[in-house]
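[stage:ingest] chain + small molecule (nicotinamide-adenine-dinucleotide)
[stage:ingest] validated
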Amino acid sequence: MRIENKVAIITGATSGIGRASAILFAREGAKIVVVGRRVSEGKKTVDAIHELGGEAVFIKTDVCRAADVQKMVEKTVHNYHKIDILFNNAGILPEETKTPITNLSVEMWERVMEVNLKGVFLSSKFVIPEMIKGGGGSIVNTASTLGIVSRPDRSAYSASKGGVVLLTKAMAMDYASYNIRVNCVCPSFVETEMTRDLVELAEKDEKAWNEILSKIPLGRPGTPEDVAYASLFLASDESKWITGISLILDGGLTAQ
Ligand SMILES: NC(=O)c1ccc[n+]([C@@H]2O[C@H](COP(=O)([O-])OP(=O)(O)OC[C@H]3O[C@@H](n4cnc5c(N)ncnc54)[C@H](O)[C@@H]3O)[C@@H](O)[C@H]2O)c1
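[stage:predict] done
[stage:export] tokens:
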């Protein structure tokens, strides 16, 4: 097993990439703290892990709230006595933010920054002291190809994910001497709840769907498992000489 007996906190593990990663990390031997706001979805992830014979608990947490995040860390340490891995994966892309900035409300701008960027800051801020006590750890952040290249109508989301890319490098510098590595994954189009509007095109509009596929050299969108495997590598000791990187997962999209 690749991360046997490690304790891993995964935010946004209530669906999509987070849930797939929670299940994969558990299969590879880690004890999983499933973090999110939705109790029923969190329970589904925990149940899936228990069915595999793995170890997991759900801790209801809004990653934008410092008090919630602090409690999440306290409960994790109370349950498992240490934290080895933090996967900062929770994120949002609200429909109302898919517009140029002159049409974007101040509230929506702030909401996206709160979840996508402040959420990474808060979880890292409260987890890192525990990692230092334990002699090190690995933090993986979910950024996006939209944190590296732009496309129309994604200003708030791109700015938040670009922030995650640079916060990753900054934290990597600040904590390297504590044996804490910090990296991020940058997926493009992955089939999850977040991209439901695109996924639905496969059935509703074949022409539009084929046009999307034609832009991806490997000919398909990513799966949550594609991102989970890359994150597992960065979380595990297999990547122990890697810190500060942004690993692009896009079927070749941005290589063109
Ligand atoms: N799907 C894609 O194409 C894609 C591409 C690039 C990056 N991403 C990023 O991947 C990550 C996971 O997204 P996904 O595609 O699995 O979508 P998703 O919507 O299935 O997962 C996001 C999860 O984060 C949770 N979440 C949202 N706000 C939260 C908060 N304040 N506190 C705690 N949990 C919260 C949601 O409830 C949800 O379970 C996100 O950061 C997203 O921006 C997704």
